[in-house]
Write a structure and sequence with these properties.
Blueprint lengths: L8 E6 L7 E6 H67 L28 E11 L2 E10 L7 E11 L2 E5 L17 E5 L2 E8 L7 E10 L4 E10 L2
């Protein structure tokens, strides 16, 4: 008698003590699912859960950072608004007071309430040198914030150079045509916390070997923050 083999099923007999043998048949496809497909499915499920958890954490962190950035932006805007309002208040107070200690600055128009604060300077001039750029003399230096807190300093800078028998003022457009006095806010505007370089080029070409110049710095509200003369051997 021929015995046909069923290739789709797996048969086995289970023998137990004091019990008759039991015959079982299991489909091979079911075994493949249990030992192959199911573990792969489980691994993929765990993978997607881990990836999803990491992705959600990143979204949460990004949202938190955006919230922090928004808060910081609002704080900066509020700080700038407070500084602007403070400047307006200072100017209003100055308009009710006479100018103090600025009698020697004949080149500049004085405003009410203007005060000389240069005796206790907040800044210093460092790294003074000259060089030739395209046949013209360029004066180079830097303003250094010498306050303990390095709080931002803003203002307007002028440089007055004595060249032989003439005076040159920087910026060159500080004096309007037909005017003999400059407004304090016509200087080169700046704002810095630590160090701010300046480059002053004189368009008439080379200047005298012994360079004598003055650096003047006014605050945004017109107070004199810095006033000092310098002499440099321009070889």
């Amino acid at each position: 008698m021929d015995v046909k083999q069923n290739e789709k099923k797996l048969s086995f007999v289970l023998y137990q003590e004091e019990k008759s043998p039991q015959y079982f048949e299991i489909k091979k496809n079911f075994l493949k699912f249990v030992f192959v497909a199911f573990p792969i499915t489980l691994i993929l499920l765990i993978f997607f859960i881990v990836v999803g958890t990491i992705y959600l954490r990143k979204i949460k962190n990004l949202a938190s950072q955006n919230g922090t950035t928004t808060i910081q932006s609002n704080q900066i805007a509020q700080s700038n608004e407070k500084e602007y309002l403070k400047q307006i208040q200072t100017l209003e107070e100055k308009l009710t007071k006479p100018a103090e200690g600025l009698g020697s600055l004949g080149l500049f128009k004085q405003i009410k309430g203007q005060t000389d604060l240069s005796k206790k300077p907040l800044i210093a001039v460092e790294g003074i040198s000259t060089t030739q750029v395209d046949g013209k003399t360029q004066l180079q230096f830097a303003l250094n914030n010498i306050t303990d807190s390095n709080k931002k300093i803003s203002g307007h800078l002028f440089v007055i150079v004595k060249n032989q028998n003439s005076l040159k003022i920087f910026p060159e457009n500080a004096l309007l045509e037909g005017d003999f006095q400059a407004n304090f806010n016509k200087g080169e505007k700046f704002s810095f916390n630590r160090l701010r370089p300046f480059y002053v080029t004189f368009n008439e070409g080379k200047i005298s070997k012994n360079l004598n110049f003055k650096v003047l710095v006014f605050s945004l509200t017109g107070d004199l923050l810095f006033d000092k003369n310098y002499s440099l051997n321009n070889n």
